[in-house]
Amino acid sequence: MYEFAPVLGSAVDRGIRPVLRFMHVTLGLSPDQVTWAAFWVSAAAAAVFATGRVVLGLVLMAVGQLLDALDGGIARQFGLVSAAGHRLDTWLDRASEIAIFLGCAVGGLVSLRLAVLASVAVLLLTTIVDRSKLDPGVKRFALYFGIWAPYQLIFSIIFIVNLAAYVVGLLVIDCRFQRDMDALGGDLNTVASRAARLEIP
Predict the structure, then answer these.
(1) In this predicted model, what pLDDT tens digit does every residue of 15-36 receive, in sequence order?
(2) DSSP labels, 143-185
């Protein structure tokens, strides 16, 4: 959850260290188990949103996000960080968000078209975020503002922000690639040609 703000993540981990110890040492829960628990609570939130009960849906969603914050904390505190765990956390986060977005559509809070567009924008951003390191975080959290603003507006913002972050992220990746090519002294064809010449005995 704090991959792009490690200092904040470390500070939060220190603050909730007793909770992390209780969950991992006392209850014997692994980070992956907590990740799955967060997903199932979020799926329950989606089902509640589908019935039109917004407040209860938001409460369950908050519980799911709290659990989602704890899985990474356990992994960091007990040296259990892994690429596989990161992938599981990322994809279950996306599955949770899409389920909640669709639940909101079924519950009549937003049009299905807008919920799908927001989901697609979030998924597009996810495909490059590890390389671009750019994630505005405007996903499930934005739904809490539905208490004060129409969900049509909120989902429009989720769609626009994530799509814009995807486009900007692509530009960031391209600029970094070009910078690396410049550092090697030429364009991709030049670098490939030099590499080919080096392989010739």
Answers:
(1) 778 888 888 888 888 999 999 9
(2) GGGGGTS-HHHHHHHHHHHHHHHHHHHHHHHHHHHHHHHHHTT
What pTM does this model have?
Answer: 0.83
Residue pair 49/104 in contact (Cβ under 8 Å)? The answer is yes
Rg (CA), the chain: 21
Pick the catalytic residue from 13, 71, 93, 135: 93
Q: Does residue 68 have an active-site annotation? A: no
Give first-to-last CA distance, the chain, whole Å: 49
pLDDT tens digits, residue range 143-191?
999 889 999 999 999 999 999 999 999 999 999 888 877 777 655 556 5
- Nearest C-alpha neighbor of 66 from the set 98, 23, 27: 23
With vertex at residue 9, the alpha carbon angle to CA 75 and CA 70, rounded to the nearest 5 degrees, is 45
